[in-house]
Amino acid sequence: MDGAVAIQLPNGFWEGGMRHAEAVLRPLNGCDEEFLFEEAAGRSTARRVTALLTRCTLRLGRLSPVSEAQIARLAAGDREALLLHLRRLTFGDRMPAVVSCPGDDCGQKLDLELSASSLLAPAPAETAESYETEVSSDGNSYRVRFRLPTGADQEAAAEAAGRGLQAGVRTLVGRCVTAASTAATHRSAVREVAARDLPETVVAGLSEAMARLDPQAEIELAVECPSCGSRFQALLDAASFLFEEVSGRRRDLYREVHTLALHYHWSEAEILGMPFRRRQRYLGLLREALGEEAAG
After folding, report:
1. Whole-number CA gyration radius for the chain
2. Mean pLDDT, to the nearest integer, of 218-246?
3. Which tens digit of pLDDT belongs to each residue from 234-289?
4. What predicted TM-score, i.e. pTM, was given to this entire model?
């Protein structure tokens, strides 16, 4: 497949106790770009990510073809890593971005020069299908077994967040917690606790543990405003960045199809099946040829 590469997933896909750590990914082609701003336009961000990664992931460990259900079960950090690799393969490593300074009476637009490769977090030293953490709250010790949030969990949480942010958080925790128990610090008796009954302090501690174990899930940029001197953290969402970039190319895509079909007489399907960089190579050659003809 044109431009396909093998990459290592930070966490890996777990199935039947087996970890699939490698994915083979191909760059976006014109059909994928068209899919994003037409067929997938009405879906939630998480569902669009699932659909797009299913199209572009050729293999997941030894699993091929890859299904939407399998992509939806990938940890959030693995999906974020795949999106960064997908963006790099398609448009290159350089990622120019713009953020607004949140400083009082500032609002300065800041141009950032980012690179997809530098945004990839180091892989965790150890990974597991599930984890345990212990959090104290109001004199009680809570032991919680959980797994990392997946794309499917993000979809469910986003839907629940329509009832409020806390509803979304609780939905995410409820799906990821597989067992929980508590005991008073001065007693030995232990009792089971439902995820929905965990105190807010325990939920907060659990969220922190998940973030530590899956650092790729959220990309935070340290930014300093040259105008007012404010220092702040900006959150970069790889999906939103990529979707906005592709959406902005909608007219360019059809112009490229028109130009290549007009001069090379290729079909629309053939041109849309080409990755972005391959189309650009032919367009560059065409511009050179037309320029030479005009000069001659």
Report:
1. 23
2. 93
3. 999 999 999 999 999 999 999 999 999 999 999 999 999 999 999 999 999 999 99
4. 0.92
**High-pLDDT (> 70) share of the chain, %:** 96
Within 8 A by CB and 6+ apart from 18, the residues are 61
Residue-range domain boundaries for the chain: 5-122+229-247, 131-213, 250-295
Answer yes or no: are the C-beta atoms of 98 and 245 closer than 8 Å.
no
The CA–CA distances, whole Å, from 159 to 43, 64, 169 equal: 11, 30, 11
Structure tokens at 145: 């077994």
> For the residues 26-30, what does the mean pLDDT come to?
97
Distance of alpha carbon 285 from alpha carbon 161, whole angstroms: 50
Q: What one-character-per-residue DSSP string does 189-227 give?
A: --EE--GGGS-HHHHHHHHHHHHHH-GGGSEEEEEE-TT
Structure tokens, 118: 């530098």
H-only helix segments in 38-182: 45-56, 68-72, 76-91, 151-160, 165-176
CA distances (Å), 145 to each of 13, 130, 142, 176, 184, in order? Answer: 19, 7, 10, 9, 18
